[in-house]
Design goal:
seven-stranded mixed β-sheet; 353 residues; 10 helices; 60s Ribosomal Protein L30, Chain: A; six-stranded mixed β-sheet; 2 domains; globular; alpha+beta; Phosphoribosyl-aminoimidazole Synthetase, Chain A, domain 2
Amino acid sequence: MPSSNRRRVSDSSEFRLIQAIRRQSSTGPGYSSLLKGIGDDAAIIQFIQNEHLLVSTDLLIEGIHFDLKLTSFREIGYRAIIANLSDIAAMGGIPRYVLTSVAIPPAYSQTDVRALYRGLLSCCHQYKLQLIGGDTSASKKGLFLGVTILGTVENSRALPRGGAKIGDTIYITGTLGDSWAGLKLLHSKRAQPTQRLEKRLSQFLINRHLRPTPRLEIGRWLSTHRLATAAIDLSDGLSGDLGHVCRESRVGAMIDAKKIPISPQCRSFARHKHLNPISIALEGGEDYELLFTVPAQHQTQLKDIERHDGVQITAIGTIEPRKHGMRIKLANGSSHPLVPTSYDHFRKKNRPV
């Protein structure tokens, strides 16, 4: 029988692998400036007297994270920056600088690479983010794009995944499932161009996939007013990302399926495709909305956020004792365990890119 350390990566899960790397990494005396390492949306490092440095990185791979038959080089560059901005938003920080590394197959032209960076830089300019360096390499197969973002947050103001408390209310910004539906529409347009939803509805969902909005303003508001106990951005899907918060906070959760915010456009898409919109919201990722937890004494202040930023904020459940696990209350009043069904890079069956 083979040793356990010889198991294939595909026999495990992405999150178990991350936990194994986390246990293996060391934070000894030489790392006194590291306040938070693996396990959050960004690492937190003591920077200057009144500020902490936030650092996060993402890797995008052709055929895994994007398909050039469905999207353009410019859109890939734009979304790459959004994904990193969303990590800073989830920490309550201010984005400052970004570095990019790209590996380019020989079949792609200089025009393609310039288009990639036009999209990347247009997003940087929009959110006042400065590109300060990176690296380039050849690739034998497929385009690889790595992005590292640096941000700042005031001392003791970062929003961790591990701060949720029993009795906190769970909130979501915006609506969920739109990006997943938009991706499905891009696939169906290529495979079955005659079977389309109403054009305006379809374009809304596709735009939500190609040009999502990082919730920087809300993240900053939660941080500066010390309203949230925990936060995470919804990049992998509600069921998986809520699981990260519960695991890091050592708590359970109960969410109400009826309260999960789903746009009219996503509900129409679900009806058209004979799908359950709740399942789309639980499984679909890359909406880049925020999930955060708020204690009872701060909840009245959330109305100020909605007025300030104009973004819908919805209470979907409560934090419960860890022994209860994660559960979901269905429309008929029954409750069931909430099993993470979000995207996992090493799961054999996943939603398509």
